[in-house]
Design goal:
This protein has 175 residues and is α+β, with helices and mostly antiparallel strands. It is built from 6 helices and 5 strands; from the N terminus they run H-E-H-E-H-E-H-E-E-H-H. Strands 2-3-1-4-5 form a 5-stranded antiparallel β-sheet, covered by helices on one side.
Length: 175
């Protein structure tokens, strides 16, 4: 059995992780065996995402001490795994969805992504979200399109002026 001091230490270690997080995923691990959890954990480690199995009561204590990082208390029941991401908050959803679609295990209970709360039934929507890098690239592409259009128009205008000057010069030489 875990002692009160160990519980306090777990909560103390969870708080800075949750504060720094851009995404929190609470998943149901009731039907998952050790091998599957280890494989899942390895996939998350590759993308530098934390995963830990945590007692719901300890997670509630940690969340209660942090503003803006609230997960619905009704989802904090049963066996839960906590996925914590610090960079792109959408990437873990793609891994969770892939495993869930294949095995119907590791069901999403809830997710908190950049302050937006998602229910477990919204896994498809969460997994379909673009990564931050993809969004930035899309925005940059949208911003550069008008600039390249302006540059093309300016080039055409200069080419037309040059043609007019050349035609005027030919007419003056002919006269």
């Amino acid at each position: 059995m875990i002692t009160l001091e160990q519980k306090k230490e777990i909560v103390k270690n969870l708080i800075p992780k949750i504060e720094r997080a851009t995404g929190l995923y609470l998943i149901d691990i009731a039907r998952v065996n050790v091998e599957e959890v280890n494989a899942f954990r390895a996939q998350l480690r590759e993308i530098e995402v934390d995963y830990q199995v945590v007692k719901n009561t300890l997670l509630i204590k940690a969340l209660d001490s942090i503003d803006g990082k609230d997960l619905p208390k009704d989802k904090l029941k049963g066996q839960s795994g906590l996925v914590i991401t610090y960079e792109d908050p959408t990437i873990p959803s793609k891994i969770i969805k892939k495993i869930y679609d294949k095995t119907e295990k590791l069901a999403l209970k809830t997710a908190l992504i950049d302050g937006q709360l998602f229910d477990g039934s919204q896994l498809d929507q969460v997994a379909a979200l673009q990564s931050k890098d993809d969004l930035i690239a899309s925005i940059m592409g949208s911003l550069s399109a008008p600039v390249s259009g302006i540059a093309g128009s300016m080039g055409a205008l200069i080419r037309d002026i040059a043609s007019m000057v050349e035609e005027v010069a030919k007419k003056q030489n002919a006269a």
